[in-house]
Write a sequence for this structure.
């Protein structure tokens, strides 16, 4: 068996006349109906590939929602050798109607969930559909993302003689900032809040520039501001929870554990994976997020009613 083949895809969904529908794709080469998916490009992050492949196969623009069960199955690679294909899936609400089809897909069909289950050609594809339906019945299918970002790798303190707040990203850190922008775009994140320290602001700046939106800086998210008043940083996070809009907050290693501590009590108790979500947040808080890491929490509700239904960690 050769190395696993990484792939990513989505279950695009919408409501039509109050009924939940999902989009299936038909591949004439195999004469099968399945979900939009495809292999990762070299160095590509799973969520970025999921959005790209969905657009390429369906012409649908989507924003990623909560993750769905992963599929693993055996295929033949380019050399005809058996290999495991691992596909990560997300629920993805369609934000615009589909355009013209291209690539290997000749039809995209929106179906209600019962018809979709009947139409799917592979039993493994029903795992994701069942999870999506369970979330819909629980009222946790419509979510919004909140990303906590630790600034990307910066010039070392030992080789920087100026004000530490002005210490810039190094070359790998600058490259990671571009990757962070692509990740945030996959989730449709549009509100950006950061420590004013250059290494933090420049981690989010490429995404702000791509969207043409302001980058809001808050002194309370800096190491210096946190040292002076540790209560300010959590208050900035609470304001984002009150807004309930797709947002990213970038800060520093010493500050992030307190912010993760704000999120821990918000784990939805009714979620089947609540223990895993709690453990993931707890690990991120105690072992420290990596530089350039993006932790995405998927929430329902806002303010005091905000609850986390899923969490993902994307390492550089």
């Amino acid at each position: 068996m050769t190395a696993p083949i990484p792939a990513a895809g989505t279950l695009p969904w919408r409501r039509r006349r109050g009924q939940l529908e999902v989009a299936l794709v038909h591949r004439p080469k195999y004469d099968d109906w399945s979900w939009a998916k495809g292999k990762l490009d070299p160095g590509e992050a799973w969520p970025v590939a999921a959005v790209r492949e969905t657009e390429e196969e369906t012409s649908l623009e989507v924003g990623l929602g909560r993750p769905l069960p992963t599929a693993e199955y055996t295929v033949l690679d380019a050399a005809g050798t058996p290999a495991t294909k691992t596909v990560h899936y997300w629920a993805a609400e369609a934000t615009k109607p589909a355009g013209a089809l291209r690539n290997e897909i000749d039809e995209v069909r929106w179906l209600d969930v019962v018809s979709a289950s009947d139409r799917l050609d592979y039993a493994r594809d029903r795992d994701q559909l069942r999870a999506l339906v369970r979330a819909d019945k629980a009222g946790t299918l419509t979510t919004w993302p909140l990303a906590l970002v630790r600034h990307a790798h910066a010039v070392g303190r030992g080789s920087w003689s100026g004000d530490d707040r002005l210490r810039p990203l190094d070359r790998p850190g600058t490259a990671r900032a571009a990757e962070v922008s692509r990740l945030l775009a996959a989730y449709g994140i549009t509100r950006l809040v950061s420590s004013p320290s250059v290494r933090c602001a420049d981690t989010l700046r490429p995404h702000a520039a791509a969207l043409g939106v302001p980058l809001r800086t808050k002194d309370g998210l800096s190491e210096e501001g946190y040292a002076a008043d540790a209560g300010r940083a959590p208050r900035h996070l609470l304001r984002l929870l009150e807004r309930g809009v797709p947002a990213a907050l970038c800060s520093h290693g010493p500050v992030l554990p307190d912010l993760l501590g704000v999120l821990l009590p918000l784990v939805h108790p009714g979620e089947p994976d609540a223990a895993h979500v709690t453990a993931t947040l707890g690990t991120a808080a105690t072992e420290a997020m990596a530089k350039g890491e993006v932790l995405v929490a998927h929430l329902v509700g806002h303010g005091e009613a905000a609850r986390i239904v899923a969490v993902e960690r994307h390492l550089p």
Remarks:
- The chain has a mean pLDDT of 95.
- DSSP finds nine helices and 13 strands in the chain.
- The longest helix spans residues 171-186.
- Residues 144-314 form a domain with the Rossmann fold fold (CATH 3.40.50.1240).
